[in-house]
Amino acid sequence: MQVRNPRTGQFDYEIQPLSAAQLLAQCARLRQGQTAWENAGVAGRIGAMQAWKESFLRHRDAVIAALSVDTGRRIESVLEADLLASAIDRWCRIAGELFSERENKPSAVPFIEIEQALVPYPLVGVISPWNFPLLLSIIDSIPALMAGCAVVVKPSEVTPRFMVPLQASIDEVPLLREVFAYIAGAGATGAELVQNADLICFTGSTTTGKKVYQAAAERFIPVFLELGGKDPAIVLASADLEMATSSLLWGSVVNAGQSCLSIERIYVEDSIYPLFVQRLVEKTQRLRLAFPDYDSGQIGPIIAAPQAGIIAEHLRDAVAKGAKVLTGGQIEQHGGGEWCFPTVLVDVHPDMKVMSEETFGPIMPIMPFHGIAEAVALANGTVYGLSGAVFAGTNEEAISIGRQIQGGAISINDSALTAIIHEGEKTSFKMSGLGGTRMGPAAIKRFMRQKAFLIKNQPVASPWWF
Ligand code: NAD
Fold first, then answer.
1. How far is residue 210's CA from residue 202's CA, in Å, rounded to a whole number?
2. Is the Cα torsion angle 211, 305, 366, 298 positive or negative in sign?
3. Separation between Cα atoms, residue 340 and residue 320, nearest integer Å
4. How many Cβ atoms sit within 10 Å of the Cβ of residue 218?
5. What confidence score (pLDDT) does residue 386 get?
6. Catalytic-labelled residue, pool 226, 264, 269, 397
7. Residue 339's Cα: distance from chain center in Å?
8. What count of other Cβ atoms lies within 10 Å of the Cβ of residue 177?
9. How far apart are CA 130 and CA 259, in angstroms?
10. At what angle do helices 372-379 and 395-402 cross, to 10 degrees?
11. Is the pLDDT of residue 231 over 80?
12. How many Å from the N-terminal Cα to the C-terminal Cα in the chain?
């Protein structure tokens, strides 16, 4: 299978998707290793994960280099690598506390006490997308490993290069390499994985998510879905305009807007709308494409070629329906790659694709609102409910509006914070996902079944017996 390079447009890399038999053999190997991994206890697993962190740091430059070729951008690749190292430390701490010895609990019956145990699912399958290939392949894998599961990851076929140096870092840790593997392949391999794992964590489009959900239902296995978004931001007149414009510029166009949690719709209180638009345009025009070199600017290429077509179609549809482009607005080919200039759009309305469908590009459509009820109705006028942002003069005022937004994570006086902050527990609302939180301490509980030992502690006859 040929892999395209997003900076050159050349197909300069190849992967060999696993056959069904190879996948089955890999899953059997990992299942076998899982028993020792579980029996190693939390202290053994913490030791192995810390050893992985050390070996990852030795391979860090190679992982960043491969990831940069996969995605065409470097700033975000460094961020992904740094988040991996900090995630290992965080989960080691959380797992240590979760598995600490607990006293038995009394029950309602004086001579029966309860001992609780946690039983990991043997094999977790992680299926991940191309927009943050490393981060989204480890965000569920690390807590699953800490819980005592074996994990097999099938990253996107669009961005597979980083797997090789990453797997090399895993292979340096004897206990870990028996339970943690990356496999190459596209949708068919992902579908095959759903047939073989005991639990699936899927991150990707809502369309594919539905297929995964259906296939998992047939096998009666749990599935956690993290899907698309169309995140809104609401800016009140009381907000700090400089802060709001700088934050929203980052939250909308970082990673060239190719983030599920990108701000894709900006609603601004009408009294400050002209000034807001002017400042955002000024700041947008300071950004540069990261071409010809990684360091030439902040905006990388569109990673997956078909996405450039979707962004272009949303821009075309918006302009045809009356939207005005104040800066950007075009997709250009440079060096064989597809590049989209950060774009500010005004005179937009909810019927445009750019205001209703996931664009996944560096596009900032801005719409004025009059009154909070209107802002909330506009923000909630979507099938998605991933996250959002509110800017106001006080955090209290912003939170009171955030409570009314149907989404699992609302950044207050900043935007897209779930890209960086992974400690808050959140679930995806509406068509943006399904299942328990992937962030915060509770995320690890998704990977374990609960078992209760109901223990008679006195040799007495139970009064309910015949
Ligand atoms: P995609 O749905 O096309 O592919 C995602 C993964 O699923 C890939 O690894 C692919 O090979 C695999 N796949 C395809 N068909 C499959 C099948 N039938 N069974 C099992 N696996 C299959 O998504 P994409 O284009 O790679 O990623 C972009 C999408 O991901 C966007 O919609 C974005 O919003 C979403 N996303 C969501 C989050 C989140 O946390 N909610 C994070 C990042 C990206």
1. 10
2. positive
3. 19
4. 9
5. 98
6. 226
7. 23
8. 17
9. 10
10. 50
11. yes
12. 67
Which DSSP state fits 359? -
Per-residue pLDDT of 117-136, as tens digits, reads 999 999 999 999 999 999 99
Residue to mutate (ligand 1; options 18, 126, 156, 214; most atoms within 8 A of CB): 156
The predicted pLDDT at position 97 comes to: 87
DSSP state of 389: E
| Structural contact between residues 274 and 284, judged by C-beta atoms closer than 8 angstroms | no
Provide the b/e sequence for 346-359 (b: ≥16 CB within 10 Å).
bbbeeebbbbbbbb
With 80 as the cut, is the pLDDT of residue 101 above it? no
Q: Looking at 10-111, which runs of residues are DSSP E strands?
A: 11-14, 105-106
Active site residue 157: no
State CA 212 to chain mean position distance: 17
Measured from CB, residues less than 6 Å from any atom of ligand 1 are 127-131, 136, 154, 156-157, 186-187, 190-191, 194, 203-205, 208, 211-212, 226-229, 260, 358, 386, 428, 432-433
Locate 78 and state its tokens: 């460094």
Whole-prediction pTM: 0.97
Q: Based on the number of CB atoms within 10 Å of its own CB, is 227 exposed (0-12), middle (13-18) or buried (19 or more)?
A: buried
